[in-house]
Amino acid sequence: MRERNGQVMQSRLVVGNWKMNGALSSNAALLDRLVAGAGALPPDVGLVVCVPFPYLAQVRERLQGTSIAWGAQDASERAPGAFTGDVACGMVAEFGCRYVIVGHSERRQGHGETDALVAAKARAVLDAGMTPIVCVGETLAERDAALTETVVGRQIDEVIESMGRDVARIVVAYEPVWAIGTGRTATPEQAQAVHALLRSRLAEAGAAEVALLYGGSVKAANAAALFAMQDVDGGLVGGASLDAGEFLAIGRA
Ligand code: 13P
Questions:
Q1: Is 175 a catalytic residue?
Q2: Per residue, what are the HEC states of 138-174?
Q3: Which residues contact 156 (CB under 8 A, 6 or more apart)?
Q4: DSSP code of 130?
Q5: Catalytic residue among 77, 138, 175, 246
Q6: 72, 76, 129, 175: which could form a disulfide with 215 (CB 3.0–4.6 Å)?
Q7: How many angstroms separate the alpha carbon of residue 111 from the centre of ligand 1?
């Protein structure tokens, strides 16, 4: 348990983003190990795995009734219809997803997702009864040009404006693009500085208690220092979430 502004914060969230990784057999082994180890985690730590769509049924089957929650890595902002290749929020909700990642930098960069589209997806996820994990973060060029606050501020403001009071029901993940999959982690102080900016924008919107996750080369060795920061409420973990030992150690941190 930790305190912020005199209030006890109930929970920490450690979310694994498997990205486009997995196979039925290796997933089964990974999930077995996670289930076996999750009981030893502190009770205020929530563990979540966000998996590729085809594995949602497998994950539901293995994780239902356990303390580990699951989610998807994206979903369409649209209602079902003629949208070949897309997956509606209601479909992933049917598979028991509690969370959906939206606006990951790999989708902003590789699929041209705009701030407005990310906000629309966050709304659709909420409307389907799930929690959007909205990713924000600057590129290395933007950081070098001292544009971190401008970029991250713009990304979060779009979500705040479009969601109104419901912004209190989302989770936000700060993932500096230069730290994703590079082995180069933001220092705890760099992460805290951006999290403080996000916290103040959200507080102005009446949503000071939104969980703020840090993501970008989080591993067991650096998680404790990152999670010790005042405004870091947990992590969004890529590569290290594919290793049960590492992921559980991050949960213990
Ligand atoms: P890595 O932990 O592999 O750097 O990935 C971070 C990430 O993008 C999680 O969404």
A1: yes
A2: CCHHHHHCCCHHHHHHHHHHHHHHHHHHHHHHCEEEE
A3: 134, 136, 172, 198, 201, 202
A4: -
A5: 175
A6: 175
A7: 17
The span from the CA of 106 to the CA of 89, in Å, is: 19
Predicted local confidence at residue 3, as pLDDT = 56
Parallel, antiparallel, or unpaired for β 171-174 and 45-50?
unpaired
Taking the centre of ligand 1 as the mean of its atom positions, its distance from the CA of residue 82, in whole angstroms, is 32
pLDDT number for residue 11: 78
Q: How far is the CA of 17 from the centre of ligand 1 (A)?
A: 7
Q: For tokens 């992933």, what's the residue?
A: 92
CA distances from 28 to 64, 68, 129 (A): 14, 14, 27
**Ligand 1: which of 74, 217, 219 to mutate, most ligand atoms within 8 Å of CB?**
217
Single-letter amino acid code for the residue at 135: C
189 an active-site residue? no
Distance 7 CA to ligand 1 centre (A): 30
Index of the ligand 1 atom closest to the CA of residue 179: 4
Q: Determine the pLDDT at residue 25.
A: 98
Question: Which helix (H) or strand (E) covers residue 175, if one does?
Answer: none
Residue nearest to ligand 1 atom 9, measured at CA: 238
pLDDT along the chain (253 residues), means of 10: 52 95 98 96 95 98 97 98 98 98 97 96 98 97 96 97 95 96 92 98 96 97 97 98 98 95
